[in-house]
Design brief:
single chain, about 290 residues, alpha/beta, 5-stranded mixed beta sheet, two-stranded parallel sheet, 9 strands, about 35% helix
Length: about 290
C-alpha cells in the first residue's frame, strides 16, 4: 500500500488510503476489536442535506472525526452514525421559494399536507453528495444506518426525554422575549435569525397613553421601537426638562416637544411643569 510514496500526489495518496480502509473494513474492525470496552457516546448535531456542503461543514466534520478517533485510540468503543436534520425553517423556506409561497396563509391555502410532502421530498436532495464529501475527508461513520430527525423513533425519543424532564420538575412555563417571524407565524432560533438577517428601517410612532384620573388627558410618547409597546410597563421623563400640556382638538397632551399637527389643528399651550413633578403619575396601559 505504501510503496512508491514519492511518486504519488497527496490527493492520490489520500484516495489510496480511503480505498484500503473501505476494502479492509478498517472502521468496522476498530469497533469489533473494542466490543467489550467502555462506550464513549458522541452526539453529533446533524446537518441539513437539502443544500450542498461547504468548507464550514468540512471543518466541523474534521474536528468531530478527530475527537472520536482520539477516544477510540484511548481504548473506548466509539459508535458513530451519520444523521440528517430535516426540521426547521431552512427546509420550509427553501420549499416556499420553489412553490412561490409568500407566507403562512399561502401554505394553508396550498395545503399543509402537500407542503409537508414537498418538504420531505427535499430534505435528502443532496444526501449522496454529502456522503461522498464526508467519506472523501475520511470521516469514519456508519453511513448505512443513518438516522433522520423525521423518523418517528427519533421524534418519540425526544418527547420521551422531554417527559422525563417534566417528571423531574425540570420544565417550567414562563414568558420570554424571543425573535419572532410575522411572515412565518413562529418564534425563531438564533440560527434561523442569522439565516436571513437584514437591516431595515422601522417606523417611529406617536402613542397616546390615557392619564388616570384626568379626563381627556394623555401622555404623548414618541418611540422608534413600536414592537415593545405590547410589553410597556413605564414611561420615562427627564426631571431636568420642562414639559408642557398642549390642547389639541379638544384633547390635552403632556409632551416635551410640540405635538405633530394633523389637518392643521390649532395647538395651544395650557401649562408647563418640570419632569420631576410628572414622575409618579399613573396612566392606563395599552394592553392588560
Amino acid at each position: 500500500m505504501f510503496k512508491d510514496l514519492k511518486n504519488l500526489k497527496n490527493s492520490e495518496l489520500e484516495e489510496k488510503i480511503l480505498k484500503f480502509w473501505e476494502e479492509n473494513k478498517i472502521f468496522e474492525k476498530s469497533l469489533k476489536r473494542r466490543e467489550k470496552k467502555p462506550l464513549f457516546s458522541f452526539y453529533d448535531g446533524p446537518p441539513f442535506a437539502n443544500g450542498l456542503p461547504h468548507y464550514g461543514h468540512i471543518l466541523a466534520t474534521v474536528i468531530k472525526d478527530a475527537v472520536t478517533r482520539f477516544q477510540t485510540m484511548a481504548g473506548f468503543k466509539v459508535e458513530r452514525r451519520v444523521g440528517w436534520d430535516t426540521h426547521g425553517l431552512p427546509v420550509e423556506t427553501e420549499i416556499e421559494k420553489q412553490l412561490n409561497l409568500k407566507g403562512k396563509k399561502d401554505i394553508e391555502k396550498f395545503g399543509i399536507e402537500k407542503f409537508n410532502a414537498a418538504c420531505r421530498d427535499s430534505v435528502f436532495r443532496y444526501r449522496k453528495e454529502w456522503e461522498k464529501t464526508l467519506e472523501r475527508v475520511g470521516r469514519w461513520a456508519d453511513y448505512g444506518n443513518a438516522y433522520t430527525t423525521l423518523d418517528n423513533s427519533y421524534m418519540e425519543s425526544v418527547w420521551w426525554v422531554f417527559k422525563k424532564l417534566w417528571e423531574e420538575k425540570l420544565i417550567y412555563k414562563d414568558f420570554r422575549v424571543t425573535p419572532y417571524c410575522f411572515r412565518c407565524g413562529t418564534p425563531l432560533s438564533n440560527f434561523e435569525v442569522n439565516q436571513g438577517y437584514r437591516e431595515a428601517e422601522d417606523p417611529s410612532v406617536y402613542v397616546k397613553f390615557p392619564v388616570k384620573e384626568e379626563k381627556n388627558t394623555y401622555f404623548l410618547v414618541w418611540t422608534t421601537t413600536p414592537w415593545t409597546l405590547t410589553a410597556n410597563v413605564a414611561i420615562a421623563v427627564n426631571p431636568k426638562l420642562t414639559y408642557a400640556k398642549y390642547e389639541v382638538n379638544g384633547e390635552y397632551l403632556w409632551s416635551y416637544n410640540l405635538p405633530p399637527a394633523i389637518n392643521n389643528e390649532e395647538i395651544r399651550t395650557v401649562e408647563k411643569i418640570s419632569g420631576k413633578r410628572l414622575a409618579g403619575l399613573e396612566y392606563e396601559p395599552l394592553y392588560k
